[in-house]
C-alpha cells in the first residue's frame, strides 16, 4: 500500500527539487557554523584593558555578552548541522531498506514460482516413469 503512495510520479519530480533544497540548507548551515566559529574566536581573544574598564565599566560585560551569544550560535548551528546529517543518513538508510525489502519480496515470489514449477515437473516426470 505504501509503495503505491511512494511510487506516485509526482514524487520523482519533487525529489529533484527537494534534493536541491536540502543541499541549499546544508550550505546555509555550514556558513552559519563557520560564522559562529569566527565570532567565538573574535570575542575570545578580546581582553579589556584596566584603564579602558575604568572609563567604561560595562565594556567587559558587553564583550562577555557578545561571547555568550556567539557561543550560543556556535552550539545551535553545530547541533543543527549534526542533526541534519543524522536525518539525511536515516532517510538514505530507510530508502535503501525499502528498496531491499521490495527486491526481497520479488525474489521470494520468483523462488516460490520456480519451486512450484519444479514440483510440477518432478510430479509429471514420476507419472511418466510409471
TrEMBL record:
Name this polypeptide is given: Endoplasmic reticulum transmembrane protein
Topology versus the membrane: Multi-pass membrane protein
Protein family per UniProt: Belongs to the BCAP29/BCAP31 family.
PANTHER family: B-CELL RECEPTOR-ASSOCIATED PROTEIN 29 (PTHR12701:SF5), BCR-ASSOCIATED PROTEIN, BAP (PTHR12701)
Domain BAP29/BAP31 transmembrane: 1-106
Role noted for this protein: May play a role in anterograde transport of membrane proteins from the endoplasmic reticulum to the Golgi.
Localization of this protein: Endoplasmic reticulum membrane; Membrane
Membrane-spanning intervals of the chain: 74-91
Phylogenetic lineage: Eukaryota, Metazoa, Chordata, Craniata, Vertebrata
Organism in which the protein naturally occurs: Melanocharis versteri
GO BP annotation list: endoplasmic reticulum to Golgi vesicle-mediated transport; intracellular protein transport; protein localization to endoplasmic reticulum exit site
Top-level taxon: Eukaryota
GO cellular component terms, A-Z: endoplasmic reticulum membrane
UniProt keyword annotations, A-Z: Endoplasmic reticulum, ER-Golgi transport, Membrane, Protein transport, Transmembrane, Transmembrane helix, Transport
Amino acid at each position: 500500500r505504501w509503495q503505491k503512495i511512494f511510487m506516485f510520479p509526482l514524487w520523482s519530480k519533487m525529489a529533484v527539487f527537494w534534493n536541491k533544497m536540502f543541499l541549499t540548507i546544508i550550505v546555509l548551515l555550514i556558513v552559519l557554523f563557520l560564522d559562529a566559529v569566527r565570532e567565538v574566536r573574535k570575542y575570545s581573544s578580546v581582553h579589556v584593558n584596566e584603564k579602558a574598564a575604568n572609563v567604561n565599566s560595562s565594556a567587559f560585560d558587553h564583550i562577555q555578552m557578545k561571547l555568550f551569544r556567539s557561543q550560543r550560535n556556535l552550539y545551535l548551528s553545530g547541533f543543527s548541522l549534526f542533526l541534519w546529517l543524522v536525518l539525511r543518513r536515516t532517510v538514505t538508510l530507510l530508502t535503501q531498506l525499502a528498496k531491499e525489502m521490495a527486491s526481497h519480496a520479488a525474489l521470494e515470489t520468483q523462488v516460490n514460482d520456480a519451486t512450484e514449477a519444479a514440483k510440477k515437473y518432478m510430479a509429471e516426470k514420476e507419472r511418466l516413469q510409471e
